[in-house]
Amino acid sequence: MKAIVKSVLFCIVFTALFMAASFLKGFLPLEYERWSHGIIGTLVAFITTFIFLRIDKRSFVQINLVPNHKTILKFLLGILIGIALMAPLAVLSIHYSGAAVEWNTNSNLLSFLLSTAPLIPLAYMEELGFRAYPLETIKEKNGIRIALFITSLLFAFYHIANGWSISSSFMGPFMWGLIFGLGAVAGNGIALSTGIHYAANLTTSAFGAAGTTSLLIVNSQETHAPATNHFQIIISGGLFVFAVILIEFYIKFTKK
Prior knowledge:
Order of helices and strands: HHHEHHHHHHEEH
Oligomer: single chain
Largest sheet: 3 strands, mixed
Distance between the termini: 25 Å
């Protein structure tokens, strides 16, 4: 129970400090808002982690937060996994919404990747805040299942604190938090989960409105809102079942 309390407190402190430090974004040009958001959040997450590790008398190594020769490879593998998971969901969601999709002739892969580069620090910030100290601390004392469930709950509450609706926070961040968390557990650190997280957001960003650098333009004027909402619920439920099955398989086949 102590580990859970410390992890909850960690996420509260991280969120509060991040909100307090957000005023720093006002000193930078608006076009760099996403960069500054991710970088400030990452710094706050590191500071919070440092403080809590000092209190615990532990090191960054003990929570798998020191990079090694496999870090980049794990991140790249995570990107492949994230695209493989999110792409079918995005395509199905758009299909069932009734939206029309066309290639964005004013964009290309390079401009798209450059414009979405801030998604990397944004993903890393949240992985550092929820899948490093909190996940490792709970996992060590209470096991993988509880660690993944609690940190996913905290991830959902974090999004609620940032203005998301309760339904959106639990159908999105909570469900994906289980996937990201399992990635962190399986990858012995947040490199793999950061890759999955980044790729999931990247894939979503590939579908956008006209006038953006997205690869595909989605015409939402013909979307069917009720059908879309129902389908999103089905997708979220399916993702939850998929995540639970993956978690149970991982625990079963890695149990010594």
